[in-house]
Write a structure and sequence with these properties.
The protein is an alpha+beta fold and 151 residues long. It has six helices and four strands.
Length: 151
């Protein structure tokens, strides 16, 4: 599983709750450093299944993501794109239909993110990202372009 966070909005209201997470002090310090940075940050969290990676990210950011999507296990690109479009709508984007490919999906995401007027950094959370990168989907190519040209 890979989690990606692009320059996020950081809340420290939940410091006591973060203390309840055992054995993740180093990861929490790294996330805090990323939040205090003046530049966009690309964070990848990986490891064995069922060790609390998603829980850590959701607790740290208190589920306050500008956009969040979870890949669907063993599903083709079309299903991943349907899910991506639904996640955009759930995040508040006014998009109709299903993106025809990852280029259109990331264009929709970019357009949506420009409408968010809150100050500070924004969190974009991709959970189970490898599941979105189906055969010949071009996901990683388009994702890399999005990050390098816009984020």
């Amino acid at each position: 599983m890979i989690l990606v966070i692009f320059a996020a909005r950081y809340h420290t209201d939940n410091v006591e709750d973060m203390k309840k997470i055992i054995g993740r002090e180093q990861e929490i310090r790294r996330l805090q450093w990323c939040m205090e940075s003046d530049e966009s940050q690309f964070v990848v969290v990986y490891g064995r299944r069922r060790v609390g990676k998603t829980y850590l990210i959701r607790r740290f950011f208190e589920d306050k993501f500008a956009f969040s999507v979870t890949g669907i296990y063993n599903q083709p690109t079309r299903e991943q794109l349907i899910n991506f479009g639904a996640s955009l709508r759930q995040s508040g984007a006014h998009v109709a239909g299903v993106p025809k490919d990852w280029w259109e999906a990331f264009a929709m995401l970019r357009e949506f993110l420009t409408t968010i007027t809150t100050r500070g950094k924004k969190v974009i959370f991709f959970d189970e990202m490898p599941w979105m990168d189906t055969g010949r989907s071009n996901f990683l190519t388009v994702f890399g372009h999005f990050w390098n040209s816009w984020a």
